[in-house]
Hints:
Blueprint: E1 3-9, H1 13-24, E2 29-33, H2 40-45, H3 47-65, H4 80-104, E3 108-111, E4 113-118, E5 121-125, E6 131-141, E7 145-147, E8 160-161, H5 163-166, E9 175-179, H6 183-194, E10 198-202, H7 214-227, E11 230-232, E12 235-241, E13 247-253, E14 260-264, E15 266-269, E16 273-275, H8 282-285, E17 308-310, H9 321-335, E18 349-351, E19 356-361, H10 364-369, E20 374-380, H11 385-390, E21 396-402, E22 408-415, H12 418-430, H13 435-439, H14 450-459
Parallel strand pairs: 1-2, 1-6, 2-3, 6-17, 8-15, 9-10, 9-15, 10-11
Antiparallel strand pairs: 4-5, 5-6, 7-16, 12-13, 13-14, 18-19, 19-22, 20-21, 21-22
Amino acid sequence: MPSYDLVVIGTGPGGYVCAIRAAQLGLKTAVVEKRATHGGTCLNIGCIPSKALLHASELYEQAKLAFGKMGIGVAPSLDLKAMMAFKDQGVEGNVKGVEFLLKKNRIDAFHGTARIVGPGKVAVTGAKGDAQTLDARSIVVATGSDVARLKGIDIDERRIVSSTGALSLPDVPRHLLVIGGGVIGLELGSVWRRLGSRVTVVEFLDGILPGMDGEVRRQAQRLFERQGMTFRLSSKVTGVDKSGPRLKVSVEPASGGPAEIVEADVVLVAVGRVPYTDGLGLAEVGIKLDERGRIAVDHHFATSVPGIWAIGDVIAGPMLAHKAEDEGIAVAEILAGQAGHVNYDAIPNVVYTYPEIASVGKSEEELRAAGIAYNVGRLPMTANGRAKVNMTTEGFVKILADVATDRVLGVHMVCADAGNMAAEAALAIEFGAAAEDLARTCHAHPTLSEAVKEAAMGVARRTIHM
Length: 466
């Protein structure tokens, strides 16, 4: 029986990062992965391939609509097969990179289905039925999440697709109907809209991007509508008829009422994700789950069973790859006797549409609900010099700061490159910076990030360029 200090189940962003950090700290480490390749959902069928298609489709649309305004004469044509190959090459490169890193750090990798069969014991069953048991002083569950499904709507990954199928459609659908106005639905909907689809988004709630700052949600919806997306809010899909050449989607008011039939070529079910814990043997060994099926852990990621920890999408918190990575590093350091920690107030949340949407920290709604008095500094991107010459003036940057201390409590952006600009906001919140600290930090000119500085100056009502 192979014996290890640590066995990590799952090699998504949380799992492989946890394993690498543990190996760096001197722990003899192994990983178990059920896929043929490492990287989990994120690298194989999530974050990485979707960003490849977002990037390619954005360039395609820019070539059609914006290049001429800059004096560049082109007539782009779409080769969807080649675009998919570009996406697949990017996935392959990242996956091979993870495999290399595991080997470099002398981490043993086992491919198969893992099951915890007792304290410190993980049974691994390979694709051919071969089995072996690994002995581990510590076990980390990092099995990620799966697509959430709607009752009565069967995903076939051809005409009714999840995010997985939406990344590999063989043709551009004339009409794509997206169920769910969250991050995944908007990102993939924007890809296919740019490539020529008419896109309708059906959202149960009264606004898109639930949980994000209200002003961000409203501004983003207006921008997406201007781009051509149609939104059916406060609505629900109650059925999809697949019997004809086109899908007949039954859409009803969320509060009840008569149904309307909407025809579509492809339906994307994007109503969220659920923790993936099936077959792990959690109940048998006594690991407790919470009311939403997530593994219950304490502040050190320990489960109810000694020697077993959990991180990433299978525990509470946002289902984000970078959140899982930070938790993976933290738990590895804890297992090595160090003080691993994750500051959940400083985790960026990014929507990679155009313009990008990024939030770090608290929203205005959360601060009001908590009774916290705050000041607001805001700069529209129309007031940013670089945005003007780049023709990227959509959106704004908003900073929320505590009235009493000026400490930055939240930063919200709708603008080009918001995902990268969010790093500065996360750093500010991580180190307890005041808005005045950001306002007095010199930013290069001309850059989009100057909007962060000026929004911070706006907290004290001294914005320069508006």
